[in-house]
C-alpha cells in the first residue's frame, strides 16, 4: 500500500483513486497468479463439438445458433382448417420422443406449456365495455367545462377506461394547440446533437415494422 | 382480288397478325411476298433496322437462340424481329411492339397466378410489388443483360441483327441543342397516357383506383394511345368502321361466289410515321424480353411460353418477406386476431440479456392463448414487442399451401378431357384493414 500511495503522491495523474477503484483486481496478472487466471479463463467447449463417443466415423454436427423463427414457417394457429399440416402439428405434441439428432430448441408442447408461465411485458387487462351513453356524455361535459382540470389521464382514471377511449369521446383543441406551442418552444432550445439524435431514433423506429 | 388476299392485306396492316407468316415461309412464297411488298410500302423514311433477311447470317442471333435453348419452331427471323424496338422501326408489322403486348400479358398472367396460388394471403400492395419485381421493366432489363444481349450504339441497316436495335434517349442532364437549358428543363410535350381521370396530378390514387385503372404493377398506364374520346385517332393501321362510306377497295370484288366482307370495314389511309420517339435501354430491354415471350407463344404454343416463364422468371429469387412495411403492426395484429376469432395477442418476454447495459437484447414473443404467433428481438421491450407483431403478421400473409395442393389455372386451361382436374384453391378474404 505504501509504495502506491507514495507514487500517487509523487505523480497524482498516474492513478487517481476513483480510477483505481474501477480496475478489476483479479485481472492484474503477475507471475504468482498467471496459472490461476489462465485456468479461470479456460472455457469448456460445447459438448456437441467434442469428439463423439457414440459415432466412430465422421458425422455431421447439427448445432444451429439460436435465431428467430422463419416467417415462411406458418404458426399452426395461422393454418387454415383445410391445411393437412394442421393435423400434423396437433399430432406432434403427443409423441414425446424427440429425434436425438436435433438438440431441440423448443418443441411445441414445451412452448405451449411455458406460454402462460412467461411474463407479459405489459399489464394485461380485460376490456370491460362498461361505459354507456350517460357516462360518455359526462366525460364530454367535464372535458368541455374545464379541460385543464379534467385531462385525459384524470378522466381515464375516474371512469376506469383507457386514455385512448377518452380521446375517442372528446378533445380539447385549444389546450392541444397551446401544448404543441410549448413543445415547439422546448424543441427549439435543443442543440444540434439532441435534434439529430431524436431524428435518428424516429428513423430507427420506422424500421421496426420492416424486416431490417 | 380475292377475299383471301384482301383479308391477308388487312392482316398485313393489322396489329398482331402481322408478317410472321410472311417472314417465316419466305422462300416458299417469295413471288407472293414480292407482290405484297409492291402494294405495301407505307414507310418512306430511312430504314433504320437491318433487314430480316440478314437474320439467317448472324452468328450472334444463332448463338442467342442456342443459349436460350429456344425451340426450333421459333425461327431466327422472328428472334431478330423481337430485337427491333419501335423507336427504330415504327411499322407495327416489323417491330416487336405487337409481340411485346402479347408477351406482357402472358408474363403478367403467369406471374400473377403463381403468386396468388402460392401465397394466397398476400396483400394487394405486396402483390403489385412482387409482380413488378418478377416481370417489371428493371427485372427484364437485368435478364436481357444476363442473356448477353448487347444493344447497338446507334441503329442502322448495317448493324448485326443480333443486337438490340433501339434509338437511345438523350439523357435529361445533357444540354439541349441551341439552348442554354438542360433537356429535362425544356418544356416537354404532353405525356401519352390512357386519358383517364386518375392521371390528373391532383387525383388521389388509392389502392382501389390502382386495381381498376392502372396496369399490372399498379402504375399509371403510360404506353396506351389515347382512345377514350371519340375525336382522337385510333391505333395506326387499325381497321375502323365507317358505315356510310363505300370503299373503292371492296368495289373491285364483284364475283358472287365470294361473300364480301362486312361493309363497315374500312382501311384507313396509309399511316405516315413520324420520327419515332427515342427510348431508354431499360424500356427497350423489357420490350424485347416480352416480345420473345409473345413470339414463343405464337410459334411454339402455351407449353413453350410457360416453360420460358418458369425458367427465366420464376427462377429468380425474390425475398418476399422484405417487401412488407407495417406502420402499426401491433394494432393490425390485434385486428387480425379479432377478425379470425383468436384470443387477443399478448406479448411475453422469452429471454433477455444486459437489461442494465448499454446494449440490452430482449426476445419477445407474441402469443395468442398458448400458441406463439411471432417472435422478435429488440433493444427495448417495446421494440421487441413491435417486431414480434410484425413477424406474426408476416407469417400470416406469407402462408403457402402445401406444394401438392397448389394448382394454377393455366395448368388445366383447355385440357378438360385430359384427366387433369381443377382443384379449388384458397381465396383469402383480404388483408387486415385498420
UniProtKB/TrEMBL annotation, chain A:
InterPro entries attached to this UniProt entry: Ribosomal_mL58 (IPR024388)
Low complexity: compositionally biased ranges: 92-116
GO CC field: mitochondrial large ribosomal subunit
Sequence intervals crossing the membrane: none
Organism for this UniProt entry: Saxophila tyrrhenica
Cited PANTHER family: 54S RIBOSOMAL PROTEIN L20, MITOCHONDRIAL, LARGE RIBOSOMAL SUBUNIT PROTEIN ML58
Disordered: annotated segments: 44-119, 190-212
GO MF terms, alphabetically ordered: structural constituent of ribosome
Name recorded for this polypeptide: Uncharacterized protein
UniProtKB/TrEMBL annotation, chain B:
Positions with biased composition (Polar residues): 222-235
Keywords annotated in UniProt: Mitochondrion, Ribonucleoprotein, Ribosomal protein, RNA-binding
Alphabetized InterPro entries for the sequence: dsRBD_dom, Ribosomal_mL44_DSRM_fung, Ribosomal_mL44_DSRM_metazoa, RNase_III_dom, RNase_III_sf
Source organism superkingdom: Eukaryota
GO terms for biological process, alphabetical: RNA processing
GO molecular function: double-stranded RNA binding; ribonuclease III activity; structural constituent of ribosome
Positions with biased composition (Basic and acidic residues): 23-39
Chief location category: mitochondrion
Keyword Ribonucleoprotein: yes
CC terms in the record's Gene Ontology section: mitochondrion; ribosome
Record-given protein name: Large ribosomal subunit protein mL44
Taxonomic lineage: Eukaryota, Fungi, Dikarya, Ascomycota, Pezizomycotina
Protein's gene: mrpl3
